[in-house]
Amino acid sequence: MSxxxxxxxxxxxxxxxxxxxxxxxxxxxxxxxxxxxxxFGEAGVCCRICAMGPCRVSPVPGKGAExxxxxxNADTIVARNFARMVxxxxxxxxxxxxxxxxxxxxxxxxGPFKIRDEKKLRVVAAEWGVExxxxxxxxxxxxxxxxxxxxxxxxxxxxxxxxxxAQVDRQKVWARENVEPRAIDMEVTTLxxxxxxxxxSDYESLFRRGxxxxxxxxxxxxxxxxxxxxILYGTPSAKASESNLGVIDAEQVNILIHGHDPNLxxxxxxxxxxxxxxxxxxxxxxxxxxxxxxxxxxxEMTMRHGVKIAGNFYQQEMCIITGxxxxxxxxxxxxFPALPALAKxxxxxxxxxxxxxxxxxxxxxxxxxxxxxxxxxxxxxxxxENFPNRDASKVExxxxxxxxxxxxxxxxxxxxxxxxxxxxxxxxxxxVKPLTDVIYAGVIRGAAGVVGCNNPKxxxxxxHIKVMEELIKRDVICVATGCAAQAAAKAGLLTxxxxxxxxxxxLEVCERVNIPPVLHMGSxxxxxxxxxxxxxxxxxxxxxxxxLPVVGIAPEWMSEKAVSIAxxxxxxGINTYLGVIPQVLGSPNFTKLLTEDVMDxxxxxxxxxxxxxxxxxxxxxxxxxxxxxxxx
Length: 632
Ligand code: SF4
Ligand code: MSK
Fold this sequence. Notes:
Number of helices: 25
Strand content: 5-15%
Radius of gyration: 24 Å
Distance between the termini: 46 Å
Largest sheet: 6 strands, parallel
CATH architecture of the largest domain: 3-Layer(aba) Sandwich
Helix content: 40-55%
Bound molecules: iron/sulfur cluster, Broken Fe4S4 cluster
CATH class of the largest domain: Alpha Beta
Shape: globular
Strand order of the largest sheet: 6-5-4-7-8-9
């Protein structure tokens, strides 16, 4: 732990001291136990794709082995490893989306899975060419559309349906470069085939394979995940919430919901409102039931229900260390396998629920769409029953929480803009024109999508916050998802008052539109919302997406999903700034491909910069160059 870290995060300081007193191990202990991390792995030149290996080649040309046993050199090994990270990320986002579509397949008027945004159902159905999209009975249409969506994963011919949303020049780039994604499962399978021993060795071909798979995520799996979640659970609108560990309430039964897939969490919200269970909670001495969210399940729930945000990725252990969590309930992705053992230090029950993410060490209650509400009810009851087991001497909840405004779907942003510009009109125009107007006029210089995780290679949250504070100061509006959005929430950047930290232009926009300078757009799959709003701006101005003064940033990323995201954001034509350097530096050729050559291919590139302020300096040069090229 650096001093900077301790100064920066008081809640962490107090809880890590408590963890030591309680004899609880945390990620920081395990990071220290790793000592110096492997230089070969860090450079991406370790290969264990076949059992002749593991082979490691020298990241320094001319020093040590230059080829693995099969003859693969650093370029091939790095490119294969990178591509396989994309496959992992695309799979995670897309398989999550598939579960949402399955839940929609189970939707019926009496619930518990219901159609909550019928308008979006009909819009997407019309977009996909469903006959009678306007007139069909709601649930017949929903079931037809869910079948079509399931085909997007495995159809034998054709490309992803949502590609047609993109601005036409971007579609031409994808066709020219042969990176239009076909069925999602097909892209992942073909990538795994290509990276098998004895298949592709050409690093550029491997990069293209990864790019196509990344685009299958962004414009396929993730976009399906977002749109179908909105249809099923409602499209988010702006609402108030709170964030940080202080949202845990000593007087209530606290249930932590953590992971990514909203299917279970939506059922938990319903179960926690059950009058019988609330009565049971009172009989156990609790004032009520308090659901608190973490990572992207938290984001999904706060966007639609205002569920309070307990924290982001690095705080998952701290949440349990408060000693006041009755049940930590998880679905898929970003869940430390360390949590069940940690939970045993306290009275917390750790409950995993997905057959795709069964975590050993405590309880497993399998969630299925067909029995969703019963599963959720069992879980909530179990948490309530556990309340009397709480040890008051072990409870320490940091007295720190921040008011937060969340819920900025694309529709919510457009709605806000319309209220300012068209307040006198009865029919809303529903366009992003006011947004492009203020960008083109230079009132705000550009826009940044800030996304991604925490990673001990950065001081947690600090890079997120420095980047966002510095950008809004320089009149760049930020939209955020995932753990970056939660970092912004905790730092108070998702409040209307945060406009005081903005430059003059952005301050004026925030005042007129009544929005924070950083907009919470949702979970990791909801980066598709960012793609869509940038895409709408490009369509509005009739330019390719790569011409707009817009950047993507992942200051503290760590997961394979982030590698997939970085690929599809670059593939969409948006320069992408990474504050943690991917494991590619062992191949100067592949590194050059990512950071330079890809520009000619897709009109955007990867930029590696660990220092947040230096990163913002580079971003401003990038944005101003784009403005100059547009003549604005
Ligand atoms: Fe070694 Fe080649 Fe096997 Fe990789 S694929 S482990 S480089 S022999
Ligand atoms: S939860 S992928 S740690 S953003 Fe989506 Fe956070 Fe990264 Fe998981």
